[in-house]
Amino acid sequence: MKFVAFERAKQGTGASRRLRNAGKVPGIVYGGEGEPQLIELDHNALWQAIKKEAFHSSVLDMELAGKSSQVLLRDLQIHPYKQQVLHVDFQRVSAKQKIHMKVPLHYSGEEESQAVKFDKCLVNHVATELEVSCLPADLPEAINVDLSKLEKGATLTLKDIQLPKGVEAVLHGHSAEDTVLVTVVLPAGEEAAEGEAPAADAAAPAKPE
Questions:
Q1: Are 187 and 121 in contact (CB under 8 A)?
Q2: How far is Cα of residue 51 from the mean position of the Cα atoms in its chain?
Q3: 27, 40 Cβ separation under 8 angstroms
Q4: Contact of 182 with 123, CB cutoff 8 Å
Q5: Phi–psi pair at 132, nearest 5 degrees
Q6: Distance between CA 75 and CA 88 in Å, rounded?
Q7: CB of 109 within 8 A of CB of 71?
Q8: pLDDT reported for residue 199
Q9: Which residues contact 181 (CB under 8 A, 6 or more apart)?
């Protein structure tokens, strides 16, 4: 995904305010082999871009002063109640250096699963994104997860899915087996019935010996 940035000479609160009043967004690009560089972007173009999932989770091509470089969106400051981006940070990436990035999980097929189609269960998406480590060229825009094999009472963990080639999950001390992605919840009526069963047994009179 491509976007255009422009060099910014002035910094400070006053300069940033004037930029925003002119329909621009102040920003910075850092990392890689170059020095941190002040930039500005067209607000309307950026506002449209941030509505797209890929802008947040993929390697971006930034055109600046006639040159193209690869960057990641690292921080986005948005006004608390206005539709206005206040500041944006990008990080340069190297083709040979692994990056850490949160990638969306795209679930599909649950309507065709045994759990939903026949047992009328509810599928709870516990995780909507996954932090991964990979080279920039291997970074997927999203990870597709097929739920068509789900059965009643199932729990889908990270161990149960296949990650794209070259992509590793960043687990922060957890195991893949402990990282729950999806749970299957019984219908409300069935849950209530199962919950009442022990109480009914407890209320039954004891049989005479």
A1: yes
A2: 13
A3: yes
A4: yes
A5: -130, 165
A6: 6
A7: no
A8: 47
A9: 105, 125, 126, 127, 145, 156, 157, 158, 160, 161
CB 82 within 8 A of CB 47: no
* Strand 143-146, strand 99-108: pairing: parallel
Question: Whose structure tokens read 């039954």?
Answer: 204
Low-confidence ranges of the chain (pLDDT < 50): 192, 197-203, 209
CA of residue 19 relative to chain centroid, distance? 30
Q: Are 156 and 177 in contact (CB under 8 A)?
A: no
Question: Burial level of 113, CB count in 10 A (0-12/13-18/19+)?
Answer: buried
As a whole number of angstroms, the distance between CA 17 and CA 140 comes to: 36
Residue among 105, 131, 88, 110 at smallest CA distance from 53:
105
Q: Residue 202: what pLDDT? A: 47
Q: Which residues is 88 bridged to in the sheet?
A: 27, 76
Per-residue CA distances from 92 to 19, 26, 70, 83, 100 (Å)? 23, 17, 6, 27, 13
Residues 67, 105 contacting (CB under 8 angstroms): no
Contact criterion met (CB below 8 Å) for 100 and 131:
yes
Task: Supply the pLDDT for residue 190.
Answer: 64
At residue 187, the pLDDT reads: 78
Instruction: Give the chain's domains with CATH numbers.
Output: 2-92 (2.40.240.10), 99-195 (2.170.120.20)
